[in-house]
């Protein structure tokens, strides 16, 4: 039997905590050999978007913001949660770009999606490249984010340690073929 064909059977699922910030459930599962795994914790999150935005001068539009989980003020790409009011992941990407930076773009490219951490999270990240971005929108910062806008030379994004969030790095590398074609 191929191990990739093995599925667990879910027999029970309980919500441990659910509020604005976290939805944690504890599952009881049986493996194919009968071994019971409990509790197996799963974090349920809405899907996210990540946007590598580039202005008309070829600079990366980044945000610097405090991230309490890592206890640091970090530099990263635009992004956030896909809200129920968003008609699509691209709509969420456009909204996040405008809210966090005041920039807008009509040149969005979907780069695909992947799971944030499929071992214990259920959500995906949808990656976008927004080229030829221009100021013109209205920034509407979430008061918990305290965003600072940074315009960076694109080459900096490829320097080790410049970006520290793994899915921001994934977005940059997914965009690479489009960026190379623009040169």
Automatic annotation (TrEMBL):
Which controlled-vocabulary keywords does the entry list?
A: Hydrolase
What positions does the domain Nudix hydrolase occupy? Answer: 44-175
Question: Recorded E.C. number(s)?
Answer: 3.6.-.-
**UniProt-listed InterPro entries:** NUDIX_hydrolase-like_dom_sf (IPR015797), NUDIX_hydrolase_dom (IPR000086)
Q: Does the keyword Hydrolase apply?
A: yes
Kindly provide the name given to this protein in its UniProt entry: NUDIX hydrolase
- Per the UniProt record, the source organism is Roseibium algae
Q: Single GO molecular-function term? A: hydrolase activity
Pfam families, alphabetically? NUDIX
User: Under which main EC class is this enzyme filed?
Assistant: hydrolase
